[in-house]
Amino acid sequence: MKLYEMGIDENGRSTASLFEIKMNRVSDTESLSNKQDGGGIWRIGFRHNAEHHRTDKAYSSAAGPYEMHVGGAPHFVGCMSGHAEITMQDGGAWRLAPGEFLYVRPGALHHSNNPSTVPVTIFNLYMPGTAKDTKPYPFK
Fold this sequence. Notes:
- The chain is mainly β.
- The chain has one domain: Jelly Rolls (Sandwich), CATH 2.60.120.
- 0% of the residues lie in helices and 46% in strands.
- A six-stranded mixed sheet has the order 2-1-10-7-12-5, with no helix packed on it. It has a four-stranded antiparallel sheet with strand order 6-11-8-9, with no helix packed on it. It has a two-stranded antiparallel ribbon with strand order 3-4.
- 21% of the residues are buried.
């Protein structure tokens, strides 16, 4: 099974990529991955709704529209309600709707924005590791 990743390209810039998880068939309608190590931390929380998309002339941010930040330890981000726009260093953007998620590799610079008319709720699941573990995650 292929999953989305906010990865790092050969030039060190954050970019969209995919990684593969080996799935084991259980039945005609069910497959499971190997048991993964958990990071022991997860959270669900509301995010501030932005009034404008980052590319809108009226968009404002304390650090400016091109501010980028690093996401910390390896983790998954999922959108539970509303929608999120996450711009990466290479200029590409993830636009997450409810039920969509992606893996964020440490060191992947990005700018998160929540231009939604519906309150935004984000789910985070942290994997073992630190913000310095920028290599691909060793999924089993």
